[in-house]
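Batch manifest line 751
LIGAND: pteridine-2,4(1H,3H)-dione
JOB: complex structure
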Amino acid sequence: MKNIDANGHVRGESLFIDDILTKKHTLHAAVFSSPVAHAKDLTIDTSKAAQFPGVERIFTAKDIPGQNEIGGILLDEPLLAEDELHFQGQPIAVVVAESDFIARQARALIEITYTELPVITTAKQAKEQGKFINPARSFSMGDANKAFSDCEHVFEDETFSNGQEHLYLETQGAYAEKMENGCIKLMSSTQGPTVVQRIAARVLGLSMHKIEVDVTRLGGGFGGKEDQATPWAVMAALATHHLNVPVKLILDRHDDLKMTGKRHPYESHFKIGLDKDYKIKALEVEFLQNSGAAADLSPAIAERTLFHATNSYFIPNVKTIVHSCKTNLPPNTAFRGFGGPQGKFVIESAIAKAANKLNIPAWKIQQANLLQENDEFYYGQMASQVEAKNTWNQLNKNININEVEEDINLFNDNNNQLKKGMALMPICFGISFTNTPMNHARALVHIYQDGSVGISTGAVEMGQSVNTKMLQVAQQTFSIDAELIKLETTNTTRVANTSPTAASATADLNGKALLKACHALLDRLKHVAADELSVGVDTIELKDGWAHVNNKQTELAWKDLVFKAFWKRVCLTENGHYATPKIKFDKTKEKGHPFAYHVYGTALIQTTVDCLRGTYEVDSIDIVHDFGKSMNIGVDMGQVEGALAQGIGWMTMEEIAYNDDGRLLSNTLSTYKIPDIFSIAKEINVDPLETEGNDMAIFKSKAVGEPPLMYGIGVYFALANAIKAYNPNYQLKFHSPMTPEKVMMGLHEEH
Ligand code: MTE
Ligand code: LUZ
Ligand code: MOS
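JOB STATUS: finished
ARTIFACT:
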């Protein structure tokens, strides 16, 4: 089935926040934010700005009727600054005016004073000064310390992986309307409608039942709207609450880039130990996460970094620790992979370091250490239905790794200006929110008396086509024409207490809830059909829009059956609830079974570096990916390609830069470059691994949203290998992204 939004998107008819037709008297808001990264003694004078023609009112922290607090995991972040400023771009005031343009002009007239304080921009500085978001977390298995002394080879080094801007096409925004009895309706571009509802209620001092959040779709989220869509919606709600007219707040790109957090940069230190057969016996990693000025989702992201610190390898002795370091940058947040990519970059760096020192290809170490059935992940879960070797072997069958390596060596022997490099990149990603209580969902299904169906779930459509998958679940269960089924908006009054659309688990959680609801309704309809046809209910099947008895089609059509059920006063509405079984995690021991299952895959990346210019191309990426039994291969292939492009961008060209004052330098799309059609691979082959699938996944179709991003990490190492082929003195460094400037320096460094 094609993405059900395809026609609307192509015609420009799909609705995003800015497309909602605003009501008469709607006002527009713009956010005034901190020009400095760290200060105290803030005073705010809005009098000049308030007199600007067309300005209705300017809101500051004083106007907040409830709690000035938007933190989710920790209560450490105000909606609007009071006395202290903690990052450039931190919201201070909301200007509400007749138009967007007026609001933006007026905000330039707001005057503030403050006393500046020293600024911290890197995780290392923060650690040196003892500035942390929360206590460090540490996972371990075996005894790494002791194991190192038995190792034949031990290597250590430092790594850095940079942040990443989400660059969703639709910037952050919301539209708020006052309803009767002091209630507020919020249209928000959020991955977490319940997060917005809960925080809006807290800030306004209202109960959650007075706030309704409605989400049609997002023009991309990528994690950037899991937590950070909230403040803008709450600001619009605050203005509506006071002014009693609708208020729209949409960040322009410049404000969005400046005010919102990004993927976390990490500075890390690893130590890896191998035996004489290149088996990894011990690993120690210290991760320094640059969390920014408030917790946001940092503690959860730090946790996932630890979970993925061993990628798809079995290592018997591991000790990892992560510090969430408090800096004066915008609070960094969820981004596709959620700390997993940062964890994997370090283990892959460690393997590359070892390979380089031992003068063998890294893939030999990777291959020798792949996870096997019943290996224990170092957080206690036993590996099952492991596809690490299967994806590797199938890839090797598709494209012989040895031959590729020989071809590349031959090419490099015969070329001076161009050098090729290859790398393998296996992935293993755990599916479930690592915070076990978040793994549940609900779905509400109405069958209308004419036989059409309306579906509401907690899933938010953000381009990943989750609505298409939800429609497929209902369509396949009822066996009716897809035209009869409609996906409703995601709305907190229809489906409450939702977890955000995140962790790649949305289709699983909401799909399983929906499946339960559909089965309950199907069962009721079968009883009605059995009654109508005077046969046993076990003989009934609903197929292709008709009731069948013992596999023979009857005269009873879906629509007539539904109407008869309605006439018999059978309930045609059902609410399904699903909570992932079996998962658990004990934080006091840091052990458990946190994931429903893991997604595996292996990629082979080939690159060419132009050693005169320092430029490069990704020639090809061959992947064998574990989709389980994909329920929509078109959609899933799209997810692999999109994630891969983002992974390549993160590792090669996307370079976030802050100066020492905490000012974002890469604050426009001319200074922050994301991959285009020319910079992703010239050839991408994605081969689905044949498997039985996994029962914990919806229709055995595994989660696909985030894992393939991590194939992009291999591009870094393929490029490093190409540089090495040109310059034998090149000392492998683990400092991403691998920009052409870095390639150039690597090509010509002397040691
Ligand atoms: N695909 C598109 N087109 N747009 C997005 O914003 N977000 C990604 C991924 N794929 C995203 C996307 C992220 S970060 C996640 S967690 C998953 O989709 C969430 O959706 P799922 O749980 O339905 O896979
Ligand atoms: N969000 C979250 C996530 O709150 N918990 C998670 O474990 C997670 N994992 C991936 C992406 N988002
Ligand atoms: Mo995705 S980082 O879980 O929104």
